[in-house]
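Box 3.1 A note on notation
Throughout this textbook, protein chains are presented in two layers. The first layer is the amino acid sequence; the second is a token string describing backbone geometry. Keep the layers aligned when reading.
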Amino acid sequence: MSAFTAQTLANCRAIAPELALIAALMAVLLVDLALLSRRSTGASVWVAVAGLGTAFALLTRFQPTDAVIFSGAIRLDSLALFFQKIFILGAMAVCLFTAANAEIFAEYRMGEYYALVLSATLGAMFLAAANDYIILVLSLETLSLSSYVLAGYLRVDRRSSEASMKYILYGAVASGVMLFGISYLYGMTGTLRIAETFAPLRQGTQSFTFFVAFALLLCGIGFKISSVPFHNWTPDVYEGSPTPISAFLAVVSKSAGFAILLRLVLQAGMAAPGFDVAAAARHLTASGLDIVFWILAAATMTVGNLVAIRQTDIKRLLGYSSIAHAGYLLMAFTVMNSAAWDAVLFYFVVYYLMTLGAFYVAITLEAQTGTTEMSACRGMWVASPYLVTAMVVFLISLTGLPPTAGFPAKLKLFKVLIDAALGTGMPRGPWFYLSLALIGVGNSVVSLYYYFKIVRAMTLERFETLPSIRLSVFDLAAMGALLVAVIFLGIYFQPVEEFVQTALSSLGGAARVVGGL
């Protein structure tokens, strides 16, 4: 066997989870073609879930390293594995949620639907491990193009077609702007390796053109994470898309955007043989990027929360909520130290659970009532106390109140800012960090109001007709599992701390973070 063949086989073994998803994608399409009827729906979902399960099992067998494969195009580190596990679990939940509420897709064959979910997940997994801009762009477009089609999957629904069209138009512009920025970075540095394009920043030789190129790159990522001013597509797409796909966009797509943003920030401090977290913060702060993140965080959480107050559709409200949570996460990027990255990853785990829970309640409501308007929730406390209890807990967690997991997650983000304000050696004055923390607390108070608009509609508003709600065994189990997880992790969150520490283990200084608030 030649050295080239041996190296290729080793590289393929390193991307075994992604290859498992590709095999599952092809199997789903073949099953759908073989059965040629709506009977393929049941078989397709189990093939998709089996493929996702296989990929997750392969991920758990991997030992995190800081190796690069395929000539340095893909990085195999613990950060990539962390996000890839979230993507797989999120996609698996979406597939199961879809199958359990088939009323939403009663008129459609579903083979291509699950194939598209697998394709989007595959793009997200490669995006989290991207080490150069070619892989970054290809994986981002794989995720985006699949998401565009999924958003418009309900072809006879005008809102779904509108959501897909808006998503495509916004996404095309964002991708074009990002590619323009990447072309400038390549022209200045002569390389497409992410770390190497930050060489001017590390050497202190950056020019105005470098900052323009980096700003254009951030525009593309800002679209993916729904930060202001690139957020306008989010509520319309969340409202018009099939509700399971809205959940997919909120969990998987947003996480993928933050994964690449986090990697870009950390690559600014790249130095062999690994990451230098302190160097990354020093280089980026000297260029004023922490001020940019301060503005983005404050604007994103404020716009998301204030506009959410006027919403009457649960999916649209959760869309603005998703924008606000992007703002909370961006707060940590103003500090950019090891504790900040610990808080960001901790928040992602909790955000995954509470967002999936809230969206699953919305999925159940839509499947059984035909709408996600709050007015349809009147009398829900009488019709289904279990569903209302689950929704209340998820909304409390999204607000960040005890005893749910949202409380320690949001507290860790605020603590990062307060510690930066009270610490020494920080590049900005105390009020730079304290002011953002106060804005975050104020926005959390605002979010309590609009989240409990849903609770009020379910429990206090008068109703004329009692809604008919019949929860299946899967509905009870899914809501119950997410409900228990959100409450349990609000009281005992050490398992999440350990998971996050594993994710940070190959990031140099980040590995020294100790669990606890």
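The mean pLDDT is 85. Residues 158-189 form the longest helix (32 residues).
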